Amino acid sequence: MPRADRKVVLVTRRTRLDELLARHQTLSQARYFVERLGADFGDYQAEHEAYATARLTVLDTLEAHGRYQALDRSLLPNFVFAPDDVVVALGQDGVVANTIKYLDGHPLVGVNPDPARHDGLLLPFQPMDLSRILPDVLADRRGAKSITLAEATLTDGQRLLAVNDFFVGPRSHTSARYRIAFDGRAEVQSSSGVIVSTGLGSTAWMKSIVTGSLAVAQAFGSAPSAPYEPLPWDSPALRFAVREPFPSRSSQAALVFGTIPVGGALKVLSMMGGNGVIFSDGIEADRLEFNSGVEARFAVATRAGRLVI
User: Fold this and answer.
1) From CA 238, how far away is CA 297, in angstroms rounded?
2) Among the four 196, 261, 293, 299, which has the fewest Cβ within 10 Å?
3) Shortest CA distance to 98 belongs to which of 307, 301, 235, 283?
4) Distance between CA 143 and CA 163 in Å, rounded?
């Protein structure tokens, strides 16, 4: 039931300068490290100051609301959201994507801390907008865009969600070996990994893979029949693509791309003795070990994200 006194959870991130200070302890040491590499330390400071200013603006709104909790995104895996919490993510886009997969129907407000720096595909609001829209969000009067999630399920019951995509392959820069099965077809492959993408992710890593493949095909005189079109964010389907498949006496390279509908699944059986991994959304800490004998099933998740618009 809509309530104006619902708790708001603010998810933030550490800036590049915060990360440098964590490693180098002092500002002067951080400056020396960056400038020794020929980079502009002033850019790090400007980004940090813009984020700090945006955070203060958001916190002023939340203080006026009353019930809120600030949370660094590194703590998301162990945080328990109340069913009626409202969530605010203070960008970049990656903060929004990393937050959505820990939510279960919660409305998520993406706030762009520095519009001059970040395009903010998932960040439709600026810090000063929050005081205007928050009452409507708390009362469930604000619209939201549905975002399809992907789910990986292992044979031992472990599960992992992805907002953008899954990577399936070796942890290091070596070849992955596995058996892939989809839509009544199956083959053993050796490649640099498999990408399973949502509609949101089809505008990112998947787009780069397909764009590169089409350019190579065109260079060999095989013009594509149509340009690449990403899926809508709420599309009830996933796409998969195999990266750099290598045909040999013991491996095939025909089952390299497909669309997984609701109710369908892509199955991948690991044949890697070690270093096999599945990670989601480009974050290697969000991973499942994927070694010999383990099978992963990739499908559209029953849970979906709600991005406030």
Assistant:
1) 12
2) 293
3) 283
4) 20
| Cα→Cα distances 110→150, 169, 251, 257, 309, Å | 20, 31, 44, 32, 9
Do residues 252 and 274 make contact, with C-beta atoms less than 8 angstroms apart? no
Q: CB of 143 within 8 A of CB of 309?
A: yes
For the domain spanning 8-142, the CATH number is: 3.40.50
pLDDT value of position 4: 64
**Beta bridge mates, 189:** 178
pLDDT of residue 3: 64
Domain extent listing, the chain: 8-142, 149-301
Environment class of residue 154 by beta-carbon count within 10 Å: exposed (0-12), middle (13-18) or buried (19+)? middle
pLDDT score for 1:
44
**What 3-state DSSP class applies to 125?**
strand
Taking domain 149-301, whether its CATH number is 2.60.200.30 is answered by yes
Which residue numbers in the chain have pLDDT < 50?
Answer: 1
pTM of the model: 0.87
b/e per residue 45-77 (b: at least 16 CB within 10 A) = bebbebbeebbebbbebbeebeebeebebeebe
Write out the DSSP string of 50-70.
Answer: HHHHHHHHHHHHHHHH--EEE
- 173-176 contacts, C-beta under 8 A, 24 or more apart: 174/275, 175/246, 176/272, 176/276
**What per-residue confidence (pLDDT) applies to 125?**
97
Percent of the chain whose pLDDT exceeds 90: 79
- CA dihedral 60→115→95→135, nearest 10 degrees, is 40
SS3 224: coil
Q: Residues 152, 278: contact at Cβ < 8 Å?
A: yes
